[in-house]
Design a protein that fits this description.
The chain has no helices and nine strands. By secondary structure, the protein is mainly beta.
């Protein structure tokens, strides 16, 4: 089975909005990692999209954008995704995000009763990640392209 996930580290968020208990994190550039079944190699892409949490309650203030995510956790019922978000994502029940942003000391924390990803446009190819390349053995992502 092919897998796709958002790599939170380095992903760019243009804004975070809360309206009528609907929290929307707008990714202007969500960095995707695609892995094909049976292959040790991966590809890196970017795509715009939103992480939406319905019934949202904030445990911190909303930072103003644009923001660069440096990591964090996305919780979906019993699952915790560290520094990544699986694609697709649509779930009811416990939903929580705890994210860190470059240059902001405070953790951004919100929770709700439903979460989903709404990806927009077509993914754009960035690079091929070879298993023998730098960072491959440690699982590190390559530096962000300009």
């Amino acid at each position: 089975m092919d897998t796709i996930s958002i790599d939170l580290k380095g992903s760019e968020i243009s804004s975070i909005d809360l309206k009528d208990q609907c929290l929307r994190l707008r990714f202007s550039r969500a960095y995707l990692v695609k892995t094909m079944t049976g292959s040790h190699e991966r590809t890196r892409w970017w795509q715009a999209g939103d992480l939406v949490i319905e019934g949202a309650e904030l445990a911190s203030t909303i930072p103003s954008g644009p923001l660069i995510c440096v990591g964090g956790d996305i919780e979906e019922n019993i699952y915790t995704y560290r520094d990544m978000i699986p694609i697709p994502l649509a779930s009811r029940g416990h939903a929580r995000c705890a994210l860190r942003f470059d240059g902001i000391a405070d953790l951004f924390v919100a929770q709700g009763r439903e979460t989903r990803l709404e990806m927009r446009d077509t993914p754009k190819y960035i690079e091929h990640l070879r298993a023998s390349g730098p960072g491959a053995a440690s699982g590190e992502s390559p530096s962000r392209p300009d």
